[in-house]
Each structure stands twice: as C-alpha cells, then as structure tokens.
C-alpha cells in the first residue's frame, strides 16, 4: 500500500504531470495568434518544476511506492539539467517553429510529457519503472520527430527512429524478463543482492547482454548508432537539439540504475562490453564525421564519438567513473545546445542553415553568431581551458584509474582526429569567403533567442570558474 | 500420458508455434498473411499463459488483441491495398492460410483443455482467491505507480496520434452544424422596402378599350 509520504517524495513528477495536462487543455482554448501564451506557460511550468526539485531535495536517498521510485542526488542533477535543456529548446525553437507553421501547442505538451518520462526513468528503482519511463520518454520523441509532415525526410527519420526504438525496447524487455527469470525479482536493489548467488548465472549474463544492447541503442554507440545520423538530419532542428541533449542525460541515469544499481555484481562482465563499444564509437564517430557535408549529420557523428567518451567513463565502475560520466553528460548537453542554437538562429523561412558550406564567411556576415559557434566547436573539441577539455580530462583520468589505459590512448588519438572537423567549421567561418549567390541568413533573429543563446554561450566560459563546484556535486551524488 | 508430460509437450508445441508464427510475420510478403500469422502468435502466447495459470491475462490477450486489435489491423491492411480486384479474389486465395491458422489454434485449444482435464488437483492457490482478484489488488496497491505511468503513456499516444493525423483542410466543404443552427433569418433573407404603388405603364394604348 502507499501512503501520503510516497506522494510527497514524488511531488515534482506529480506537479509536472498535472501541469502537462493543464498546458494541453489550456492550448485548446487559444486562437492561433495567441499561441505565445502556451509557450510562456510551458516555460513557467518547467521553471516551477526545477524549483520543486531543488527546493525539495533530501539529504539522503528516499524511496517511494515500495522502492519503485528512488530520489537521490544523481537523479536530481539529471532532472534539473534535462529541464534546463528543455527550456532552452523551447526558447530557441519558437521563431523557427513560427516560420514553418509548426508552432502548435502539442509541441509543448508532448515535450513536457517526454521530460516526465525522463524524470521517472532516472529515478526508477524497479525494472518496470525503468521500462515505462523509457517508453513515456520515447513515445513523444517519435511524434516530435515526425512533427513536420510536409517533409519526407522528417517522416523517414521518424519511422527509422520509431522502428529501431521499438526494437531496442523489445530487446531490453527481453533482457529484463531473463533477469527476472534468473533472480525472481523486479526490484533493482533486490537484483543487486541476489545477482551474485543466483543459481542461473548464465541466464543472468544473457539478460545483461540484452540490457547492454538496449542501453547502447539509447546512447547511440557503435554498433547501435545507425539511427542517429538519419534522425539528426531528418528531424526538425529544434527536435534534433532535444534528442541530442535530453536522451543522453537520461541514458546516463538509465545505465547507472541498471548496470550499477541492478547488475553491479556483474561489473566485470559489462565493463568489457562498454569498453569495446566505447572504442568502436570513438573511432567510427570521429572518422566518419570528417566526411560529412551536412552540419547536422556531422554533429550526429560527433555525438557518437562523445558517447564513446561517456562509455569510457562508465567502464570504470566506481564512484569516480560515474561522477565523470555525469559531469561529461551535463557539459555535453550545454555545448550541444549552443551549436544547434546557432543553426536554428541562422535559418529562416524556406532556408535551413544546415550545410557546412552555409557557414562560409559567417564571421563577415554575423560575427557574434560566428563567435558563439566557434566557442561551441572549441568546447566540443576539448580545447583547454573550456568545459569540454575538463570533462575529457576527468573521463580519461577515470579510465586510467580503472585500469583501461589502452582505451584512454585510443580516446586521445581519436580526440585529435576529431579536432580536424571541429576546426574545419571554425576555418570555414573565419577564413573562407561566402559562396557566390549564397542564401541570405536570418536577417534579424528574435531578441529573446539571441539573448538566451548568448547567455548560454557565455555560460560556457563563465562556468569554467564554477566547474569545480559542479564536479563536487557530481561526486557528492555518488557519495564520494 | 500423465499430466506433467502433457503440459511439457503442450508448452513446447505452443512455444514452437509462437516463434514460427512470429518469424512468418516478418517473412511474409503478403501483408494479410503477416497479420494472420500475428494472430496465431498472439493466440499461442495466450495458450502459454493459460498453461502458466494466468487465465485472466490469457483471455484478455485473446479478447483484446486477437478479437479487437488484430481485426482492426486486418481491416487497415486490406484498406491499404488500393487495387480493388486482388482484394475481391483475396478470399479464396487467403482461405487455405486462414484455415491453417484456425486449425493450429483448434489443436492448441484442445491441448489446453486436455491439460486442464488431466489436472485433478487444483493448482497452487493458498489465498483462495481467483487470479483476477489477485491481479486487481496488485495493480492498485503494489503496482499502482507503473499502472499510472502506463495511463500517461496512453495519453501521450493519443495526443501524438492526433498531432500526426489531424490536418486542417482549408478546401473541405464540410458543414458546420453550430453555424447552421445559429443562423437567423435576417442573415439569409434581405428585406427590401418598396413602394406599394404599382406603376402604370405610361404607353398603355387607350384604343384597346372595348367599344361601347
């Protein structure tokens, strides 16, 4: 049975559920030209949820509904970052959506529902809540990718995303049923307790393999990365921004809950799987990104290589590895937002600024945006002293401490290869002349967009000073 | 044949049929065959659940999925085929497959009945409650949170379906009943004031008056 206490633990999730329904209904009564009200309401609602998460944080881990819901610091950091990334997406997406007649209320309610899914996923304490959280998060994402029905590319991306996503959750579900068969329980802490002594170790290992495959799909690591470039390219750019940030954060929570929280005793098995996938993603992601002409596709392959870095951290199954992964994911989300934000801001009605050639001579046309893009690229490439560099150092340190020296060397070589395509963007923007007869860019981007994007980009610099604090939070989340 | 052996044999048969039919779903070139194979998959799974004494879930699977969802699927798949001629001749063509699927289902059903009939002592049921009652209690107590999340997922599915399917057609000539009934006579008929005097044609010939 549940008590009032269970509900109190879940206040942010319950509030956001009620608020999502409110946004959904509120929008129905608006006329098309009043849609801005939905936009601002959605942002206020999300800010309220951030407040509730931060305000209601508990000194120690609490559980609700018989351990099905776990509220700890890791979950809180991830929830706040996910909501910040979503708010940034809302703000940056508005002019883009308006220009393309996609400015509809359901965009906001679906995104909020998806965020609720992430919140439940990162707080899951049982295989059932993991799976349901994952579905609740993924289903709106499929619909959002297909939002632009006029575009064939968008529909194709949505179908690929949906089919592969369904396959991944099917595999994961199969793994969960095998684990249930081997341990006789769905609760992750119970699985942890009996995993070492189960009479069916091979069944458990088979289940683990399927779980790792499912997690690999969520991250988009090689060899489960096939959907990523097509979806990035085909999805409406604000949604690309969403699926390049939020799911990665969610996947860190997912991996931690399932692999450490549930199958920690099998760490010796899964860390090798993660290490191999990390090495493959680093190589494939960085090498293939060089060949891309489309900016969104290039960022997709760059994401694959960054996910390799995340797996590098996770392959050290200690608090150090997890805190490095968490820190990396948070930094990555904020850097990606800037990169996609610039693409969104420069596009206008009938023109998508998504080819690398479109950026030629950007410095002469719009120096401020060129500066922000360069900052994002330097940060993603890991040039000191930017955030990307610090995150990479922490990850490499975690990997070396975990005895994965070979992997750290692979990662460094790949990061140097990766420098090429990030710096090419910078070169194109600053040293190339604009193409003759190039499409004009967005003449005057929306003021709120420019302000928020600038704050986000400057944040990448200012936050360097606070990265120690952030890393301390990440470490505290895992009890170091 | 004793009870345990028959149960094992039935399980293997159901499992093989379920997996084989699932493969057929993917391999079938004809979408109608694919849907029929999917029906068989669901039915075999339901039989396995019945063996595991999860009667309610098993019946729900048959009633909801086989009975409602799959029939809808079949309709949709048949509608997709715009070419009308092959659809008409489809009945005879699909008949052998349909009969085959039905025959396998019949065998499975008989197997289940056989297992049930041989099972003299009742199964493990210490609480003395039916499994529907147990399921209901579990759903609304221990599994309340997942149950509610599932409800949210359904809501999202509904919203997403509407977003993707709703098209505001500007050219459609549909009627709006609310507008129609709100109409007043004044907006349809224009009353024009006119002088009540009839104008006499000025050039009326006087000569046509009857002679006295």
What ranges of chain B have pLDDT less than 50 throughout 5 or more consecutive residues? none
Tally of discrete structural domains of chain A: 1
Sheet-strand content of chain B, in percent, reads: under 5%
- Record the strand order, biggest sheet of chain A: 1-2
Give the chain pair forming the largest contact, with residue counts: A-B, 31 and 19 residues
Total beta strands of chain B = 0
Number of helices of chain B: 9
- What sequence of helices (H) and strands (E) makes up the elements of chain A? HHHEEHHHHHHHHHHHHHHHHH
CATH topology assignment of the largest domain in chain B: Four Helix Bundle (Hemerythrin (Met), subunit A)
How much helical structure, as a percent, in the residues of chain A?
over 70%
Chain-averaged pLDDT of chain A: 90
- The computed structural class of chain B is mainly alpha
| Proportion of beta-strand residues of chain A | under 5%
> Structural class, judged by helices and strands of chain A?
mainly alpha
DSSP helix fraction of chain B: 55-70%
Major beta-sheet overview of chain A:
2 strands, antiparallel
What sort of overall outline of chain B do the alpha carbons produce when their principal axes are compared?
elongated
User: What is the radius of gyration of chain B computed over CA atoms, rounded to a whole number of angstroms?
Assistant: 34 Å
CATH class of the largest domain in chain B: Mainly Alpha
Order of helices and strands of chain B: HHHHHHHHH
């Amino acid at each position: 049975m549940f008590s009032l206490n269970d509900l109190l633990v879940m206040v942010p999730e319950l509030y956001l559920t009620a608020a999502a329904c409110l946004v959904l209904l509120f929008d129905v009564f608006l006329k098309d030209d009043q849609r801005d009200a939905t936009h601002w309401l959605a942002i206020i609602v999300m800010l309220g949820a951030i407040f509730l998460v931060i305000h209601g944080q508990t000194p120690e881990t609490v559980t609700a509904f018989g351990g099905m819901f776990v509220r700890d610091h890791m979950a809180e950091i991830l929830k706040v970052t996910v909501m910040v990334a979503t708010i940034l997406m809302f703000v940056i997406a508005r002019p883009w959506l308006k220009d393309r007649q996609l400015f509809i209320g359901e965009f906001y309610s679906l995104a909020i529902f998806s965020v609720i899914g992430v919140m439940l996923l990162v707080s899951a304490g049982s295989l059932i809540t993991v799976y349901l959280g994952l579905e609740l998060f993924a289903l709106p994402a499929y619909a959002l990718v297909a939002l632009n029905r006029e575009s064939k590319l968008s529909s194709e991306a949505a179908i690929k995303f949906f089919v592969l996503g369904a396959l991944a959750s099917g595999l994961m579900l199969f793994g969960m049923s095998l684990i249930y068969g081997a341990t006789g329980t769905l609760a992750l802490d119970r699985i942890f307790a009996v995993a070492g002594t189960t009479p069916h170790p091979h069944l458990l290992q088979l289940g683990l393999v399927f779980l790792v495959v499912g997690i690999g799909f969520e991250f988009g690591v090689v060899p489960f990365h096939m959907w990523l470039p097509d979806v990035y390219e085909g999805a409406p750019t604000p949604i690309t921004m969403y699926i390049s940030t939020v799911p990665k954060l969610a996947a860190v929570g997912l991996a931690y809950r399932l692999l450490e929280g549930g199958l920690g005793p099998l760490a010796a098995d899964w860390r090798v799987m993660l290490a191999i996938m990390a090495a493959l993603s680093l190589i494939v992601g960085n090498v293939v990104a060089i060949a891309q002409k489309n900016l969104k596709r290039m960022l997709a392959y760059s994401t694959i290589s960054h996910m390799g870095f995340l797996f590098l951290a996770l392959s050290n199954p200690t608090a150090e590895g997890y805190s490095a992964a968490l820190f990396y994911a948070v930094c990555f989300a904020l850097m990606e937002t800037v990169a996609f934000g610039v693409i969104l801001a420069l596009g206008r009605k009938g023109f998508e600024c998504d080819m690398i050639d479109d950026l030629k001579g950007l410095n002469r046309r719009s120096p401020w945006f060129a500066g922000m893009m360069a900052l994002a690229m330097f940060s993603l490439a890991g040039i000191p002293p930017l955030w990307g560099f610090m995150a990479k150092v922490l990850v490499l340190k975690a990997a070396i401490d975990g005895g994965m020296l070979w992997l750290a060397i692979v990662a460094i070589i790949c990061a140097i290869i990766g420098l090429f395509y990030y710096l090419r963007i910078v070169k194109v923007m600053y040293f190339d002349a604009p193409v003759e007869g190039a499409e004009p860019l967005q003449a005057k981007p929306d003021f709120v967009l420019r302000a928020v994007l600038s704050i986000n980009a400057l944040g990448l610099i200012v936050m360097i000073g606070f990265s120690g604090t952030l890393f301390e939070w990440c470490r505290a989340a895992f009890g170091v | 044949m004793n009870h345990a052996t028959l149960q094992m044999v039935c399980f293997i048969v159901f499992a093989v049929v379920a997996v084989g039919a699932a493969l057929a779903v993917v391999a079938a070139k004809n979408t109608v065959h694919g849907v029929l194979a999917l029906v068989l998959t669901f039915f075999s799974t339901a039989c396995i659940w019945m063996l595991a004494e999860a009667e309610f879930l098993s019946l729900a699977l048959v009633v909801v999925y086989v009975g409602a969802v799959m029939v809808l699927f079949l309709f949709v798949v048949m509608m997709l085929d715009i070419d009308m001629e092959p659809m008409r001749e489809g009945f005879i063509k699909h008949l052998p497959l349909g009969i085959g699927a039905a025959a396998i289902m019949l065998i499975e059903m008989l197997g289940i009945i056989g297992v049930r009939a041989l099972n003299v002592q009742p199964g493990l049921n210490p609480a003395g409650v039916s499994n529907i009652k147990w399921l209901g209690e579990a759903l609304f107590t221990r599994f309340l949170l997942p149950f509610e999340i599932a409800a949210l997922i359904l809501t999202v599915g509904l919203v997403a379906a509407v977003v993707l399917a709703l098209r505001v057609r500007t050219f459609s000539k549909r009627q709006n009943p609310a507008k129609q009934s709100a109409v007043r006579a004044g907006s349809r008929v224009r009353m024009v004031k006119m002088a009540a005097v009839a104008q006499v044609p000025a050039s009326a010939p006087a000569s046509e008056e009857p002679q006295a």
